[in-house]
Amino acid sequence: MQMLNRYFTPFALILIISAAYFRGLWEEESRGTAFVALGILAADLLVNWWLNKNQYRWAGWAARFRQLQVWLNLAWSAPLFYLLFPYWSPMWLIFVMAPTAAGLTFGIAETVLCAVTAAGVMIGVYWLRQPLTGEFLGMALSQAAFIIIFSLFVHGLAPAALRLRDANRA
Question: What is the pTM for the complete model shown?
């Protein structure tokens, strides 16, 4: 989980800063959106840091802490996407993070559940913001399929990487 936080949190920050910079969210009328998004990311960072710091203190709860982290990351993704996708279309990539973490740390059933939930929430937010018709519907469904397929790919790749690592140590 620490490795995912090390790479995905800066990626989320890049998405938010890109939306703010390239779409003018620092201007007076929309500055609040940028600050709310950064606040959500800061809360996510703080919670993830606390969970990582304390998961070994309560070793029996470590698996539950990892589960909580994955689902909280998905929960943080929804408001970030809702706020920023009208300004920055690559924001949908934020929904790839939690299912990828699930693919690395959970079994197939929970990976699929997380990926389908992430894809469903993304499509739900799209539906709330604008009609899902024509080309836009195709784009949203393609993105949802990518979220699911990529998390399954990572889930399948993780054991293979461990086997390769262990074979090279012998």
Answer: 0.83
